[in-house]
């Protein structure tokens, strides 16, 4: 019985939860993708509820990186590079952080921002729905990688820097 539980745990998590969430190697099926998205979002919600800005920003960085890995793994299961999925998440995440840090009422008070943010959110919902419900391919191609994620740490830092510049500009001009 103990061995079966250990085997099930390894089947779900792999070697460890850290490699499960932060490694860009491997493949995620639909259930693993859905579970990872729920777990990562729960983690962020718990940290955000503490209302400590430094912890919120640090957890946002970890969540962004982990979600990139999760999306890349799921894309491989679909036998795709996943560049469109990565780009849609890269646009959605700053919107989420911006609305959390400055308050959703500030975003929705500006018609221009509201239209942009709503469009990005709709795109993200469509992408996640596709990734959750589309069955994986029978033959997995582990060599598929989005060109954006050849260097995921550099991509993460670049996305966050661009988001910061955009937020600063919106906040200054707004």
Notes on the structure:
The chain is mainly alpha-helical. Helix content is 76%, strand content 0%. It has helices spanning 2-13, 17-22, 30-49, 53-77, 83-102, 104-108, 111-133, 152-173. The protein is globular and about 60 Å long. The mean pLDDT is 84.
Can you lay out the helices and strands and say which pair or pack?
Layout: H1 2-13, H2 17-22, H3 30-49, H4 53-77, H5 83-102, H6 104-108, H7 111-133, H8 152-173
Q: Any key phrases for this structure?
A:
single chain; mainly alpha; 8 helices; 76% helix; 0% strand
Radius of gyration: 17 Å
Percentage of residues assigned to helices: over 70%
**Segments where pLDDT lies below 50 for 5+ residues?**
none
Main beta sheet: none
Residues in β-strands, percent: under 5%
Please state the structural category: mainly alpha
What average pLDDT do the residues reach? 84
Report the strand count. 0
Number of helices: 8
Cα shape: globular
Distance between the termini: 61 Å
SSE order, as H and E?
Answer: HHHHHHHH
């Amino acid at each position: 019985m103990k061995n079966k539980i250990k085997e099930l745990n390894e089947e779900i998590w792999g070697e460890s939860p850290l490699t499960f969430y932060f490694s860009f190697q491997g493949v995620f099926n639909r259930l693993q993708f859905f579970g990872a998205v729920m777990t990562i979002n729960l983690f962020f919600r718990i940290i955000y509820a503490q209302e400590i800005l430094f912890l919120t920003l640090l957890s946002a960085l970890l969540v962004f990186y982990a979600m990139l890995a999760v999306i890349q793994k799921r894309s491989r299961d679909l036998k795709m590079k996943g560049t469109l999925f990565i780009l849609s998440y890269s646009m959605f995440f700053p919107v989420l952080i911006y609305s959390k840090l400055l308050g959703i009422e500030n975003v929705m008070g500006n018609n221009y921002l509201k239209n942009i943010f709503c469009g990005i959110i709709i795109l993200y919902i469509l992408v996640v729905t596709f990734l959750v419900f589309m069955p994986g391919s029978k033959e997995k191609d582990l060599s598929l990688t989005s060109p954006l994620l050849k260097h995921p740490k550099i991509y993460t830092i670049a996305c966050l820097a661009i988001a910061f510049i955009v937020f600063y500009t919106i906040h200054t001009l707004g």
